[in-house]
Amino acid sequence: MPSRLPPLSRPFARCCALAFALAATALGFAGSVQVNVKDNKGASVADAVVSLVPLDTKPALTVPAEPLVIAQIGQEFEPRVTPLLVGTRVSFPNRDAIRHQVFSVSKTKRFEIPLYGPGAGETLSFDKAGIVALGCNIHDWMAAYVVVLETPFFVKTPADGVATLPSLPPGRYRLDVWHPRLINDVAREITVAGAEAALQTIAITLKPDSRRRRAPDGLGAGYK
Ligand SMILES: [Cu+2]
Question: Which domains can be identified in the chain, with CATH numbers?
Fold first, then answer.
């Protein structure tokens, strides 16, 4: 006598839902998170680094094959803020007609590239997570930052403060924000549920911009 299939039970349905969720993860139903970073006066914030650290999964950490570039050009660093994955290499080409001597005294990575002329520059590896503040011994207004991260999910905000982190596996994440003038800790936990985009509006408090600048004549004779 043929056996009959049992009716769908509640635990069975729950099990199906869980299996579907796991399959969705396995099939890569990735979500995305759009961030909008503003200061406490409501102005858009550029150069904020927003990172998402997965709390449920361990993503593959694949560093770029080619070094990133932080150039010295017009007696400034370009770009001023560089987020990267731990282990990434960075080259420091001098694109000016004068010499630079780039250094860091940050404990995340301490180094000095001896005085070098146009076209020259070294390539260094950033192997420890943290913030590295860069300076130049010749031009004391030159400042830049390397944000070394242990997650592949990060983005730097453009002038309008809005950026998107795509291709996020579903799950829980710690959302973190860093900016050169950040005062408050705005870390929070978020959940990426599926293919839909999650919007995160982030308000940060910034110290006043006290950065010394070169004189407009380009001679470095005065600051404003
Ligand atoms: Cu310099």
Answer: 30-59+152-210 (2.60.40.1120), 61-150 (2.60.40.420)
For residue 135, the model assigns a pLDDT of 98
Residues with CB under 5 A from ligand 1 (ion): 100, 136, 138-139
Give the other-Cβ count within 10 Å of 159's Cβ: 9
Mean pLDDT (the chain, rounded)? 85
* CA-CA-CA-CA torsion sign (52, 185, 90, 96): positive
Percent of the chain clearing pLDDT 90 (strictly above)? 70
CA of 135 from ligand 1 middle (Å) equals 8
pLDDT in tens, 149-190: 999 999 999 999 999 999 999 999 999 999 999 998 899 999
Cα–Cα distance measured from residue 20 to residue 18, given in angstroms and rounded to the nearest whole number? 5
Helical (H) or strand (E) element with 111: strand 111-112
Distance 75 CA to ligand 1 centre (A): 6
- Cα-to-centroid distance, 139 and ligand 1 (Å): 4
Going from the Cα of 143 to the center of ligand 1, the distance in angstroms, rounded, reads 10
Give the whole-angstrom CA distance, residue 124 versus residue 128. 12
The pLDDT of residue 28: 53
Handedness of CA 157, 155, 67, 82 (dihedral sign): positive
Q: How many angstroms separate the CA atoms of 73 and 19, rounded?
A: 54
